[in-house]
Amino acid sequence: MASVEIRDLRKSFGPIETIHGVTIDVPDGEFVALVGPSGCGKSTILRLLAGLEEVTAGTISIGGRVINEVEPKHRDIAMVFQNYALYPHMTVAENMGFSMRLLKKSKEEIRREVGSAAEILGLTPYLGRYPKQLSGGQRQRVAMGRAIVRQPQVFLFDEPLSNLDAQLRVQMRAELKAIHNRLKVTTIYVTHDQVEAMTMADRIVVMKDGYVMQAGAPLDLYDQPANTFVARFVGSPSMNIFAADVSGGQVQFAGTDWCAAPADLAGAVQMGIRPEHFTIGEGGAVLAVENVDPTGSETLVQGQLGGVPATVLLRTRAAVRAGDLLPVAVRPELIHLFDAESGDTLPMNSEGL
Amino acid sequence: MTRNQRKATDFMIDVGLVLFGLLMLAPLLMLVANAFKSPAEMVAWPPTFIPANPTLDNFRSVLGETPLLLWIWNSLSFAIMSTIAIVLTSSIAGYVIAKFPFRSINVVFALFLATAIVPFEVYMIPLYFQVKDLGMLNTNQGLLIGYLVMSFGIFLIRQNVLASIPDELIEAARIDGAGELWIYWHIVLPLLRGPLAALAVLAFFQAWTSFAWPMIVATRRAAYTIEVGLALFSTGYTVDLGKLSAASACVLVPSVVAFVILRRNFVQGVASTGMKE
């Protein structure tokens, strides 16, 4: 097992630079998720780590060793691909023992290692089958098994769950997490699904357009997003961002004072409120309800707040109907403020809390 | 359309196809029949389908007077070696062109395809002089030089690799520690079994039925392939129909048997070109 350090990593394809100086530290044994919308460069970083693409500038180290020029097979990594990349003409056991066979391990040793990995993954009854005879979830497990058998320093996952149906995805999420807790191998996990990242990772790196937007523990990103992009990306449904004004020391929007503004702030500001932080209550603004989605445990209400689309998530079965006027309020300490221009988070006064 | 009408239509189609099939088969059957006829019966009118007095004279004189079995052996070894060469060269070239897309490879690919536009007869003579200078006339190697590479085969394999071998498979193998040759041999080749079998059939019959090239490269009787040997039976002035029929029948039977055995590969492999397996 080893730590991974990425220092000022850059990658260009021809004249176009897609990764603009990314720095990420992954301590030994940690589970880090790289998230971002498609095209943000997260998969490219994984491929650079695996050695499938050449680094343009910067360094990648695994366990303190710079591996920019090292062949993929000597990097001591294992990668799980989105489409699993199982060899169709080999059985499950052959697929899983593939890397050991290349290392010229004895048949006995291969069988033992494959057997114990299959045990962990519940694949023992399927060792003699071919990939096409397996379900999606089983194939996913075989791909995991192939990585485990390798006993690498680092696991790399490239959207491993996105080909599974919703229910299986939740189940595999838990299994992956359990396997990580058991093996404690440093893991870098690429996904576009922030829920996956939030539930599985020790730390999340949010990326956009080849830049790191923010890195931190899942709940830190949720509580203290660095900018509006992270604020919108982390959490589901997304945070509401309203264009508000500061006047008289108060942040005002839709004719209502929402919270005390930091002392040196004036003029325009962006105000972020998570849908689940709204409560039905007097003294706040009024939401003109347009759409109500009850999911059983919660009620998702969409409407207009001060003429701007807004989403409110109620933890109860509210008797709300389209066309209603719903008075909503938020505790001031749950409100986020962002710079109107850059979208960066503004420090809140401690008195403001 | 009622069910009965549809049945009737189907029946008529079947009858039509059977008649057409018999029509296609008739010359071949006639050829085999002729091989057993005496010279007098062969030119008799109306022609008989089943020989009145079957005789083995034709076979006896063909096998006795000409090295027919040697010619078949020459053809067979030439065709098999050409098939192996074409399967290997097409799979390597097709795989590299499909999966190692640096810019100049497209130029190489275009050149490969361009060779398909030039008829073999155009460069047959220069190639002959090269073979002659190499001292390879009348040898199997000399024959092979014209039949080592098939541009259609490269194209066929490239399309199949693009359609049915995802990049991730090769990348996964690289990460797992496989070398490039190992990947080609243990991953790419097994996954191309279908198209390679189809290509093998094409290559085999291409070599087996080749005529002009063996004709000029083989100058000694003992080096002839069967196609060249068969042509000997018809000279500018006479055709020895009995012997030609007997020799042709000897050649026809193995080819037809081979085709029947390989038919499924032949049809499937070509039909599924470019499709996901």
TrEMBL record, chain A:
<dbReference type="GO" id="GO:0140359">
    <property type="term" value="F:ABC-type transporter activity"/>
</dbReference>
<dbReference type="Pfam" id="PF00005">
    <property type="entry name" value="ABC_tran"/>
</dbReference>
<dbReference type="InterPro" id="IPR047641">
    <property type="entry name" value="ABC_transpr_MalK/UgpC-like"/>
</dbReference>
<keyword id="KW-0547">Nucleotide-binding</keyword>
<comment type="similarity">
    <text>Belongs to the ABC transporter superfamily.</text>
</comment>
<dbReference type="InterPro" id="IPR027417">
    <property type="entry name" value="P-loop_NTPase"/>
</dbReference>
<dbReference type="InterPro" id="IPR012340">
    <property type="entry name" value="NA-bd_OB-fold"/>
</dbReference>
<dbReference type="GO" id="GO:0008643">
    <property type="term" value="P:carbohydrate transport"/>
</dbReference>
<dbReference type="InterPro" id="IPR013611">
    <property type="entry name" value="Transp-assoc_OB_typ2"/>
</dbReference>
<dbReference type="InterPro" id="IPR003439">
    <property type="entry name" value="ABC_transporter-like_ATP-bd"/>
</dbReference>
<dbReference type="GO" id="GO:0055052">
    <property type="term" value="C:ATP-binding cassette (ABC) transporter complex, substrate-binding subunit-containing"/>
</dbReference>
<dbReference type="InterPro" id="IPR015855">
    <property type="entry name" value="ABC_transpr_MalK-like"/>
</dbReference>
<feature type="domain" description="ABC transporter">
    <location>
        <begin position="4"/>
        <end position="234"/>
    </location>
</feature>
<dbReference type="InterPro" id="IPR003593">
    <property type="entry name" value="AAA+_ATPase"/>
</dbReference>
<keyword id="KW-0067">ATP-binding</keyword>
<dbReference type="GO" id="GO:0005524">
    <property type="term" value="F:ATP binding"/>
</dbReference>
<dbReference type="InterPro" id="IPR008995">
    <property type="entry name" value="Mo/tungstate-bd_C_term_dom"/>
</dbReference>
<dbReference type="Pfam" id="PF08402">
    <property type="entry name" value="TOBE_2"/>
</dbReference>
<keyword id="KW-0762">Sugar transport</keyword>
<protein>
    <submittedName>
        <fullName>Multiple sugar transport system ATP-binding protein</fullName>
    </submittedName>
</protein>
<keyword id="KW-0813">Transport</keyword>
<dbReference type="InterPro" id="IPR017871">
    <property type="entry name" value="ABC_transporter-like_CS"/>
</dbReference>
Automatic annotation (TrEMBL), chain B:
<feature type="domain" description="ABC transmembrane type-1">
    <location>
        <begin position="72"/>
        <end position="262"/>
    </location>
</feature>
<dbReference type="InterPro" id="IPR035906">
    <property type="entry name" value="MetI-like_sf"/>
</dbReference>
<keyword id="KW-0762">Sugar transport</keyword>
<dbReference type="GO" id="GO:0055085">
    <property type="term" value="P:transmembrane transport"/>
</dbReference>
<comment type="similarity">
    <text>Belongs to the binding-protein-dependent transport system permease family.</text>
</comment>
<keyword id="KW-0813">Transport</keyword>
<feature type="transmembrane region" description="Helical">
    <location>
        <begin position="12"/>
        <end position="36"/>
    </location>
</feature>
<dbReference type="Pfam" id="PF00528">
    <property type="entry name" value="BPD_transp_1"/>
</dbReference>
<keyword id="KW-0472">Membrane</keyword>
<feature type="transmembrane region" description="Helical">
    <location>
        <begin position="141"/>
        <end position="161"/>
    </location>
</feature>
<feature type="transmembrane region" description="Helical">
    <location>
        <begin position="71"/>
        <end position="98"/>
    </location>
</feature>
<feature type="transmembrane region" description="Helical">
    <location>
        <begin position="105"/>
        <end position="129"/>
    </location>
</feature>
<keyword id="KW-1133">Transmembrane helix</keyword>
<dbReference type="GO" id="GO:0005886">
    <property type="term" value="C:plasma membrane"/>
</dbReference>
<dbReference type="InterPro" id="IPR000515">
    <property type="entry name" value="MetI-like"/>
</dbReference>
<feature type="transmembrane region" description="Helical">
    <location>
        <begin position="244"/>
        <end position="262"/>
    </location>
</feature>
<keyword id="KW-0812">Transmembrane</keyword>
<protein>
    <submittedName>
        <fullName>Multiple sugar transport system permease protein</fullName>
    </submittedName>
</protein>
<feature type="transmembrane region" description="Helical">
    <location>
        <begin position="182"/>
        <end position="205"/>
    </location>
</feature>
<keyword id="KW-1003">Cell membrane</keyword>
